[in-house]
Amino acid sequence: MSYEAWILIIGSLAGVTCGIIGCFLILRRLSMLADAISHTVLLGIVLAFLISQSMNGMYMLIGAAVVGVLTAVFVQLLSSSGIQEDASIGVVFTFLFAIGVILITVFADNVHLDVDHALMGEIAFVPFDLVQLGFLPPLPKAFLMLSAVLITNLLIIVLFYKEFKITSFDPQMAAAIGIPVLFIHYLLMGMVSITTVASFDSVGAILVVAMLIAPGASAYLLTNKLTIMLLLSAVFGIASAVLGYYTASFLDASISGSMASVNGIIFALVFLFSPSKGLISKKFTFKKLNTES
Amino acid sequence: MSDLLMMLGDANTRWVLVGTMLLGLASGVLGSFALLRKQSLIGDAVAHAALPGICIAFLFTGEKSLIVLLIGATTTGLLAAYCIQLIVSSSIIKEDTAICLILSVFFGFGIVLLTKVQQMPSGNKSGLDAFIFGQAASLVGSDVKLMAGAAAILIIITMLLFKEFKVLTFDPEFAKGLGLPTGFLNFLFLSLLVAVVVIGIQAVGVILMAALLITPAIAARYWTNSLSKMIIISGIFGAISGVVGTLISTFGQGLPTGPFIVVTATFIFLVSMLFAPERGIIAKKIKQNIYHKQLNKAGAKEGMS
Predict the structure, then answer these.
(1) Which residues in chain A have Cβ-Cβ distances shorter than 8 Å to B109?
(2) Which end of chain A is more exposed for a tag (fewer CB within 10 A), N or C?
(3) In a mutagenesis test of the A interface, which of B93, B100, B230 is the best target, namely the one with the most A β-carbons within 10 Å?
(4) Is residue A140 classed as helix, strand or coil in its secondary structure?
């Protein structure tokens, strides 16, 4: 397959994987926690690298998942000790991220793992990083990781769909009918962590937040049904990846940055023109009401 | 130790230290209000959103004059804060999602512009990437004077309007009843917040600037229940973090300043969380133990009678 096709496929995979998870984050008001995890995953990756001395994807996934869940646990601990939640998120992620940056600059200065790469990702090199797996032809590492994570996430969501839905919309009722709310919460956080890591190579730790939140937020403004929201979010994820890539090659600028910008543009359009919840349609409804009365 | 003395002998280092100290002080003071108003994370979004502003300013003027870059940063920072409020007030999207969205999209756009800047012949050496993690050592005298002056002005404005901000923070309805211009004061406070974030990004970097607003304020909250004391303590904690972080980062070659300032601030926070009298974890445990003993004693007595 051609170089361009691989980039489009990998970008779209990242878009779909992030977009689906993002819907649950938005409904549960956990966006900032996801932002925090996307930062602290850096620490997990650096630690995995320092301990194993290799850039093996498996170690990185484990390290990131551990640090991601730890972030959620620390935030939970601080906020249950009486600190308001937004501030506990701020304290935890800045600290863990700062340690990650310090470790990179001190210990891992000469390796492939550098700060810019971690922040912005470099999807342009991803198609060259090939892995041979069994009888299959050599495939890009990022493609395999993203597909594996997407399949895992989809399986978990399909298996626990009802649980996810109820805990997202009505946690009290979920607890009352015996759904393990806390377990679902940490499961989701684990999924966010591995999603972040799998997308890390392609879009970078910071911009993965845009991939996570923006498609879901746009979809949220267009529908009231969870299934449709998930589908729309996946579609927006793919659209922003594809459009972002072409914008970037047109402007000759950062691909991941362009994907985030396109995400922002899509959201702005939906925010203005959404048929039911858009700014302009609301204005019209008000006008109609005014003239009728 | 002699290294330290030698460094302190250097005039530029001394200026940088004064700058980061005043910066820590100002962000500690404003951070306390932001914390109580539950606006801490808006600071985070504003800091990230400063990146495109810096790049736009550089693309337009083609030179790295700090004041121009800061004007750019302030513009996009304010724009981001406005966008967040617009999204929250006119759609079903909640504040955390709005903050997250604006933060990442603005930062992504900033990265696009940054790659354009780096393609320019003059942009390659511009060192704009230092804004991502902060490089206090790269500050020159005039930059530091600007930073220190701005921080001092911010502190003075906050002190002058202390009473107004206090009422606005704790009881906005009452503030309105008193006839205070609450809309204007809200805007002014947001502008002060944006200003302190913007002057801090050169030293601390856009990603970690939020920590300087949040962490000292939270740490100070453990030591007191009075707003004026909290602001003073938070300012002192911020100043200590700034100075210690800068000192550590100047020891090594090419170490970024921001992360060390953040680690110092978090260390102060952890100490406060454990050891603060009354609200600290240890003090609480001791108090609980005393209550338990008293209860047991009372229970034993009752059992005897």
Answers:
(1) 257, 260-261, 264
(2) C
(3) B100
(4) strand
